[in-house]
Design brief:
The complex is a heterodimer of chains A (about 325) and B (about 230). Chain A is mainly alpha-helical and about 325 residues long. A two-stranded antiparallel ribbon of chain A has the order 1-2. The longest helix of chain A is centred in the last third of the chain and has 25 residues. Chain A is globular and about 70 Å long. Chain B has about 230 residues and is mostly helical. Chain B folds into two domains: about 50 residues, no CATH class; about 170 residues, no CATH class. In chain B, helix 1 runs antiparallel to helix 2 and helix 5 packs across helix 7. The chains are: A mainly alpha (about 325), B mainly alpha (about 230). The interface between A and B is large, with 139 and 112 residues.
């Protein structure tokens, strides 16, 4: 059976490859830092499941120090002018879309098919992780298609991965770091302290005030944690269930559905949701790392207002 | 109260633009120690959580093939396709992507998108290409604005589409949490009550996208007349 562990091996090998390409590039201004950063990251994929927690923690801290002291850099990339790419685009035409679109299509197909087929009674992949495993398989299929079609040098894919990963830089690791921070927040009980403060300081004696506090609280706490899933249990146990449902007789289903979506409004406004808000600025090579958040804030605020009105109007109707 | 020190560190760190990896690490260590763990225990907890969330990094596996295709002119081809459509404008390209992304997410097909797989190689170049069609060569500043909008479309359409699908993570979480509190809800009911917000999201963001075209026209249209 294919499990997440196999996908991690693949990721680890890619990171190791990226580290090696960096090592061999003498033009790179931060050659050693880049090599160490991606190399250690590769180790967390290849060996992380078997190392003790403390060793993993020290590896992570080593990566952080490498990335923040003198920082990471990008090497020079030669031989790739816009004119050359235009010519190549002319030559290949719409065929170039085949491998690119194969990635999402095969991922979706995989999630559907792997749930249905079994081999001698057992599933072929770990069904709990079927989306991630399907994505990994889809990228391999797309890569094979691209290699057969374009016939580039054998090492071209790993050099391209290095070019893009170096452009993304430390932001590639930020989502995982924030997940780790969220875990420590949970261990230390940050959520309970926050909902305690909200209950003590905010007047909660009218249904409208309670609904507004709950929705804004979901958004604000999501902004702090970077994740609506972490905010939902805290705010719902602290404000939603005792006040909206029990005290004022609101409908729990509607409250929960719109409450979660209020949290999503917060996700749009916070750098803590790095994989949605910070990583794309790196991927799209934007100089301002808050550029995506700035575009999203007006929509998020208007939608949060809409959610407050919707919840007020719908939750007390029965 | 001391347990909130991590939040303060994160806010100050982001405002001062210190390297976020360093800020998050220090915030994590401070929070753990304020919560009563020893330094070694905090480092171990940090390492454990980092390792268990490795799955968020699987998306980087797409980079070798995306890079290969970009080298072969994928972005240029995406621009050229849009250049062939006279009706295409930046807003319309993004509107179509918004609608497709939100509808497919509502059907549970959340992987038909993403910043590394779709936005960087296809959607952003198409949106830029549509603007180039109308206004000629773009300033870097305008390109950045269009790209940021492309990324925002992917996020907003995903967030406010996926919750309509009954087997998505957030609905399972809501159901599990309410079950623990003795309240039983049907996933279909939760999904239905996500629809009003989904419609609001579509209306609000698509209106803003249409205004983006107007702003581009006001700024860039004038410039080409003056030139």
């Amino acid at each position: 059976m294919i499990t997440l562990e196999h996908v991690y091996w693949l990721s680890g090998l890619m990171m190791a490859g990226v580290a090696i390409v960096n090592w061999r590039d003498r033009t790179s201004p931060r050659r050693f830092n880049n090599t160490a950063f991606w190399g250690v990251y590769g180790v967390t994929f290849l060996a992380g499941s078997h190392l003790p927690d403390l060793a993993n923690g020290l590896l992570v801290i080593a990566m952080v120090l490498v990335a923040s002291i003198r920082g990471l850099g990008q090497g020079k990339h030669e031989g790739d002018t816009r004119a050359e790419r235009e010519a190549s685009a002319q030559r290949w035409g719409n065929k170039l879309f085949i491998p690119a679109l194969a990635i999402p299509l095969i991922t979706v197909l995989g999630t559907v098919i792997f749930k249905r087929i079994t081999f001698q009674g057992t599933a072929m992949v770990d069904l709990k992780q079927v989306t991630v495993i399907s994505l990994a398989i889809a990228t391999l299929v797309a890569l094979a298609t691209g290699m057969i079609m374009l016939r580039p040098p054998l090492l071209a894919p790993i050099r391209e991965a290095r070019r893009l990963l170096d452009a993304v830089g430390w932001a590639a690791v930020l989502p995982q770091m924030l997940a780790a921070l969220g875990a420590l927040f949970a261990i230390a009980g940050v959520g309970n302290v926050v909902s305690g403060l909200a209950q003590r300081w905010i007047p909660l004696n009218s249904p409208f005030a309670v609904v507004t506090t709950y929705a804004i609280g979901m958004a604000a706490f999501t902004m702090i944690m970077g994740n609506a899933f972490a905010a939902f249990p805290v705010m719902t146990a602290g404000i939603g269930l005792p006040l909206i449902v029990q005290k004022f007789g609101g409908d729990a289903t509607i409250m929960a559905a719109i409450g979660m979506l209020s949290g999503f409004c917060g996700t749009l406004m916070t750098p803590m949701a790095a994989n949605f808000n910070i990583v794309p600025t790196a991927l799209l090579e934007l100089p301002d790392e808050n550029a995506v958040i700035k575009v999203q804030i007006p929509t998020a605020l208007m939608l949060l207002g809409a959610n407050i009105l919707l919840m007020n109007f719908l939750v007390f109707r029965r | 109260m001391l347990t909130l020190i991590g939040i303060a560190i994160v806010v100050v760190g982001f405002v001062l633009r210190i390297n976020p990896l360093l800020v998050v690490t220090i915030a994590g260590l401070a929070t753990g120690i304020a919560g009563g763990l020893s330094l070694l225990e905090v480092i171990a907890a940090f390492g454990k959580a980092f390792i268990t969330s490795r799955y968020v990094a699987i998306v980087w596996l797409v980079l070798p093939v995306i890079g290969l295709l970009e080298h072969a002119g994928l972005k240029e081809r995406a621009r050229a396709v849009v250049a062939g459509l006279r009706a295409a404008t930046t807003s319309r390209v993004l509107l179509v992507y918004f609608a497709i992304r939100q509808i497919t997410a509502a059907l549970g097909l959340t992987s038909l998108g993403g910043h590394a797989q779709m936005v960087r190689p296809l959607i952003a170049p198409m949106a830029e290409g549509a603007a180039e069609n109308e206004y000629g060569e773009l300033q870097q500043r305008t390109r950045y604005r269009i790209r940021a909008n492309a990324a925002a479309v992917d996020n907003i359409a995903l967030f406010f589409g996926e919750d309509i699908f009954i087997a998505i993570g957030s609905i399972l979480l809501i159901r599990g949490f309410l079950d623990q509190n003795g309240i039983h809800v049907e996933p279909t009911q939760l999904a239905i009550w996500a629809i009003p917000t989904a419609i609001c999201a579509f209306v609000i963001h698509c209106t803003r996208l249409l205004l983006l075209d107007r702003r581009l026209r006001a700024e860039l249209g004038k410039k080409s007349e003056a030139a």
